[in-house]
Amino acid sequence: MQLIKPDTNIDFVNKRKIALIVSIVLILIGLTSLTIKGGPDYGIDFVGGTLVQVQFVEETDASAIKAALQGLDIGNPVVQSFGDNRNEYLIRIERSSTELQGLSSQIRTALESSYAKGNVDIRRVEMVGPQVGKDLRNKGFQAVLYAMLGILVYVSWRFEFRFAVGAIVALMHDVLITLGAFSVFGKEIDLPIIAAFLAIIGYSLNDTIIVYDRIRENLGKHNKQSFSFIVNRSVNETLSRTLLTSGTTLLVVMALFIFGGGVIHNFAFAMLVGVLVGTYSSIFVASPVLIFWEQRKASRAG
């Protein structure tokens, strides 16, 4: 099945400067948001503390819930709505289980005094110590870094070092834009999101490798043509496959994002942004980096 005709010749190469401007703007928006907010918004997994998910029978709001919890010695809890259910909320407390005993029953008692007995359902309680959270955060980011280094070695071995540089630039581009999107939309980063970042890296690399393989093949077939021509031809020849793969993946991720519920909402959001950006970068970032590399090499030789 082909969505794109075999003889299609879209001039992607000459649009690389426009794509560069778009990428820079998106990355700067994300970095600006991260700077203003003082860094990523980490979840309980990475900063430690206690998370309580509560569902109410009657309609309420965050301010009323905070007022009901004022009598408890739990500091200043953060209350926010959860998922698509207007009566479901997350209560975040900075202290962990070593400092709080019987937290679930304390919260239930405090809330039932305001909302009546039987109208409050404690759905889950998650507790992580601050030292454990810091260790998980460090190991999560190390996993992303080691994945990048492994990809650099693998692509250098399978292709050439210039291809590896293009792949790494594209992957860094994808991660930075996805991280920026999380900051702009106020979403938390926790362990499932690190897993999403690793999945995005793998997905984006797969797209890039397909294009690179076709470039290497066409270098032998069209060795009298310019390198820019070969890159553009290779992107066009793999475009149908790229759109089919990305389209079917997006359908699944979109379904998870819309119908998956609050628990996997952020994970699905990361995958949604990552698949879109990863498809874009395999066409407009990874391949143009090769052209830039060749142009710099030619100018030095001249």
Topology, pairings included?
Elements: H1 16-36, H2 44-47, E1 49-56, H3 62-68, E2 78-82, E3 85-93, H4 103-115, E4 120-128, H5 130-158, H6 161-184, H7 191-221, H8 227-237, H9 239-259, H10 265-284, H11 286-301
Antiparallel strand pairs: 1-3, 1-4, 2-3
Helix pairs in contact: 1-6, 5-6, 5-7, 6-7, 6-10, 6-11, 7-8, 7-10, 8-11, 9-10
Task: Give a summary of the structure in a few sentences.
By secondary structure, this protein is of the alpha+beta class. The chain has helices at 16-36, 44-47, 62-68, 103-115, 130-158, 161-184, 191-221, 227-237, 239-259, 265-284, 286-301, and strands at residues 49-56, 78-82, 85-93, 120-128.
Give a structural overview.
The protein has 302 residues and is of the alpha+beta class. It folds into two domains: 13-42 and 132-301, Multidrug efflux transporter AcrB transmembrane fold, CATH 1.20.1640.10; 49-128, Alpha-Beta Plaits (2-Layer Sandwich). The protein has eleven helices and four strands. The chain has helices spanning 16-36, 44-47, 62-68, 103-115, 130-158, 161-184, 191-221, 227-237, 239-259, 265-284, 286-301, and strands at residues 49-56, 78-82, 85-93, 120-128. Strands 2-3-1-4 form a four-stranded antiparallel beta sheet. The longest helix has 31 residues, at 191-221. The radius of gyration is 24 Å and the shape is elongated. The model has no long low-confidence stretch (mean pLDDT 82).
